[in-house]
Specification:
This protein is α+β, with helices and mostly antiparallel strands and 108 residues long. It is 58% helix and 12% strand. It contains six helices and two strands, in the order ααββαααα. It has a two-stranded antiparallel ribbon.
Length: 108
């Protein structure tokens, strides 16, 4: 087999591989399954890192133009520091969970 024939054969194989990949992506789920799996793995990695940080972290979103906040997450170190479990605060108002926070001036 000449170098030219080998090159043609290699290119033909590569084209078939690419055509197969295109067919997968254009299939019924359009590659969605792979993207969802990649996203799930990334979320698991984030969760592992977040939960095992040594510093306490609470995540929240603003409500009422920043007059209050809603907890969306908290890591284990945050639970230990605040002595409040994640389940007790997620979805609740910062003012409801820690009513004295406004007196201390942390929401100004």
């Amino acid at each position: 087999m000449t170098q030219k024939e080998k090159t043609k054969e290699d290119l033909a194989k590569e084209i078939r591989l690419l055509q197969g990949r295109i067919a997968e992506l254009e299939g019924p789920d359009g590659g969605r399954r792979q993207a969802e799996e990649a996203l799930r793995r990334e979320h698991e990695q984030f969760r592992e890192l977040f939960d095992n940080m040594s510093n306490g972290v609470a995540v929240y979103k603003a409500r009422d133009d920043g007059e209050d906040f809603i907890f969306t997450d908290m890591n284990r170190a945050g639970e230990r520091a605040s002595k409040v479990s994640r389940e007790e605060i997620v979805g609740k108002s910062v003012l409801r969970v820690f009513p004295s926070i406004k007196k201390v001036g942390l929401l100004e």
